[in-house]
From TrEMBL:
<feature type="transmembrane region" description="Helical">
    <location>
        <begin position="53"/>
        <end position="77"/>
    </location>
</feature>
<dbReference type="InterPro" id="IPR042106">
    <property type="entry name" value="Nuo/plastoQ_OxRdtase_6_NuoJ"/>
</dbReference>
<dbReference type="GO" id="GO:0005886">
    <property type="term" value="C:plasma membrane"/>
</dbReference>
<dbReference type="InterPro" id="IPR001457">
    <property type="entry name" value="NADH_UbQ/plastoQ_OxRdtase_su6"/>
</dbReference>
<protein>
    <recommendedName>
        <fullName>NADH-quinone oxidoreductase subunit J</fullName>
        <ecNumber>7.1.1.-</ecNumber>
    </recommendedName>
</protein>
<keyword id="KW-1003">Cell membrane</keyword>
<feature type="transmembrane region" description="Helical">
    <location>
        <begin position="89"/>
        <end position="108"/>
    </location>
</feature>
<feature type="transmembrane region" description="Helical">
    <location>
        <begin position="141"/>
        <end position="162"/>
    </location>
</feature>
<dbReference type="Pfam" id="PF00499">
    <property type="entry name" value="Oxidored_q3"/>
</dbReference>
<keyword id="KW-0874">Quinone</keyword>
<dbReference type="GO" id="GO:0048038">
    <property type="term" value="F:quinone binding"/>
</dbReference>
<comment type="function">
    <text>NDH-1 shuttles electrons from NADH, via FMN and iron-sulfur (Fe-S) centers, to quinones in the respiratory chain. Couples the redox reaction to proton translocation (for every two electrons transferred, four hydrogen ions are translocated across the cytoplasmic membrane), and thus conserves the redox energy in a proton gradient.</text>
</comment>
<keyword id="KW-0812">Transmembrane</keyword>
<keyword id="KW-1133">Transmembrane helix</keyword>
<feature type="transmembrane region" description="Helical">
    <location>
        <begin position="6"/>
        <end position="23"/>
    </location>
</feature>
<comment type="similarity">
    <text>Belongs to the complex I subunit 6 family.</text>
</comment>
<dbReference type="GO" id="GO:0008137">
    <property type="term" value="F:NADH dehydrogenase (ubiquinone) activity"/>
</dbReference>
Amino acid sequence: METLFFYLVALVAVVSGILVVKAKNPVNSAISLVMTFVCLATFYVMLNAPFMAAIQIMVYAGAIIVLIIFVIMLLNLGTDVQIRTSHSVAGGVVASALVLLQVLYLLGRGQVAGVQGKIDAAVVESVGHTELIGTALFTEFLLPFEITSILLLVAIIGAVVLTKRTV
């Protein structure tokens, strides 16, 4: 059952990744990117890394997508109003069913693992410790962490330069 769920999430991740590139509307592309990030967070949960899954959702699916949508709105790319087709309705139904399956699976997995609201030392030891992640982030992975911050700064400066173009 777990293998089937993995393949289902992998299929959704690949399809939403393709939609990120193929979408003509930049807002639809950003929404597809959110779905890709959610699938990646699901993979983290399947690997017993809930802290990384939470960070994935908060940082990427939250903050970075808000930044991307903000840049789209600053650039005034806009969206064309399109008539709702049966394809978009069917896509919404399929996406909703997939999200429901993910929620049911994760709820069932939490009950099987015995983590029903009880967190003790054994659970923390089996899942990982935030202090260890923080220590590794600021010692072994300090250079990639700083490069990422500089990359985000350059992206913000690029967005400001693009919005200051002469009319």
